[in-house]
Structure formats: C-alpha cells, structure tokens
Amino acid sequence: MQKLHKLIDQIEGLTTLDDVCQKTAGWVMRATRCDTVKNALSGTWLGHALHPILTDLPIGAWAMASLVDVTAGKDGARAARGLVGAGLLAALPAAASGASDWSDTYGGSQRLGFVHAAGNGAATVVQAASWVARRRGRHCTGAALSGLGLGLTVGAAYLGGHLTLVQGIGVSHTAFQEPVTDWTDVAAATALSDDIPLRVTADGVPVVLVRHDGDLYALSATCTHAGGPLDEGEIVGDGCIRCPWHGSEFRLADGEATRGPASVDEPAWEVKVDDGRVYVRSATA
Questions:
Q1: Domain range holding 242?
Q2: Left if phi > 0, otherwise alpha if psi is -120 to 50, otherwise beta: which for 203?
Q3: Cα 147 to chain centroid, rounded
Q4: Domain co-membership, 13 together with 140
Q5: What is the CA radius of gyration of the chain?
C-alpha cells in the first residue's frame, strides 16, 4: 500500500506534465465553454456528477467480456465480442465527461488526472484491438487483449478513486456543513449594497448575503464544486451568482446550480431583517 501511495505522490510531482496538461485543459475548456455542453457533461441537469455513472458502463462491459471468455470459451465468443464493442461505445461519453471535469483541476490533481486519462485511453486502444482480433476469428488473441485492457482499466480506476475519495475531486464541498437551526445575527442591514456579495459567518459556517432587485438572499459561501468563495463572485443572468474559480452559477432564490461544472445545488438560507440587523438560518431548519 505504501508503494502505491509513493507512486501516486511521484505522479503528482511530475511537473514535466504541466505544459501538456495546461494545453490539453485549454482545448477542453474551449470545447465545453457553451453552457449547454458544460451542464450536460458535468451532470448539472442530474444533480450529480455524470462521469462516475458513465464509467460503470465500459468497465462493466469489459469485465463481463473477460468473464465470458473465462467461463464459456469459444462458445461465448460472439457475446464477448458484443460486450467489448458495447464497452468501446460507452467509453466515448465517459471520456468526454471526465475530460470536462478534469479541465477544472490544477496542480498535482491535474497531473494525476492526466495519467488516469492516459491509462484509460491505452485500455480503450487495447480493447479496440481485441474487438478487431475477435472479428477476425482470433478469439484467444482477443481474450488475451481484453484481459490486458481490463488490467489497465483497473489501474486507471484506482487513480480515479484516489482523486475522488482521497482528494475530494467531484465531492460536494458543503456536504458536511451542519445546519444552523436558530436565527443568527450576522450583519447590519446597512452593510449591504445592491448586487455586491457580502461574506458573513453563521455559527462557524460561511454565508454569502446578496441584495438583488430589492430582495435579500443568502447562500452558503463555499462553492459546492471546488470550494471557491462565492462572496468573491459576481451577480449574473436572472438572479444568479457566479463562482470566481470555475464559473459555476447558482440561483440566489434557492441555490439551484444553473451552470456547471457544479452539479450539486448550493445550500440556501432563510434570511430576515429585524431592527436593522440581518438574521439567517439554514433553509432546512
């Protein structure tokens, strides 16, 4: 286990990858700058990151192809070839959603994500070679290539799991905020100016206050996507606030994510003004 951790540390420290990572990320950002494309690939419409769901499809198909190879041999050749082909088709949207998510990372996480993607790319090429071999009737060669490709996929999946479960990439950064059930005094009403976000704290939880079109709104100030400070963002569109880090947008009225890369809504807060003071509490209260 320590050897694996050291290997990951070494990958994260490969600064020689920075140039290719930054250029590739730039290409992906340009390809996904349209709101519709970004929202579709991020899973904003789903309320959940899309990439982890899509990766189950090629991994599952290729794993079952190898299982059929082992248990049915040549009798299962046609079924195994179909599974390999299904995995290849499913790999395309999985790669697109992963590239979109990866383009918003940086530093060691971006380097590790690049190697993760390279491993999956290599696995896909090997599986494509397997499909061609099977198509030509070379079942044993196809089965061997599928086994090799599955091994590469497992290795890449380990790196992906490290990014998600250890580094928290793609995990909501407000998931563990405790709700504040009591009305909490956070600011003077005079401290607020129209469409200028104000950061306050309610029982240790950062909150952003915004006065917009005469109404007062409050959301958690930590962007669910990557922890960016929403209070440093700007008010855009039809009553939304944009995160300054990656451009995620949330509706002030209820915190709904309206533009990716965020896929999880921002926690909304109830707000009231009493005797010139602004009070907030969690909307879940």
A1: 184-282
A2: left
A3: 29
A4: yes
A5: 23
Residue that is written with structure tokens 């383009």 in the block: 103
- Is beta strand 184-188 parallel, antiparallel or unpaired with respect to 240-242? unpaired
pTM of the model: 0.89
Q: What is the distance between the alpha carbons of residues 253 and 284, in angstroms, rounded to a whole number?
A: 14
Number of Cβ within a 10 Å radius of residue 15: 11
Q: What is the pLDDT of residues 172-192, one digit of tens each?
A: 999 999 999 999 999 999 999
H runs (alpha helix) in the chain: 2-12, 18-31, 35-42, 51-72, 77-102, 107-135, 139-161
Structural domains in the chain (count): 2
pLDDT digits (tens, 9 = 90+) for 221-260: 999 999 999 999 999 988 999 999 999 999 999 999 999 9
In order of 55, 57, 67, 103, the CA distances from 117 in angstroms are 12, 16, 24, 12
Cα dihedral across residues 119, 123, 128, 129: positive or negative: positive
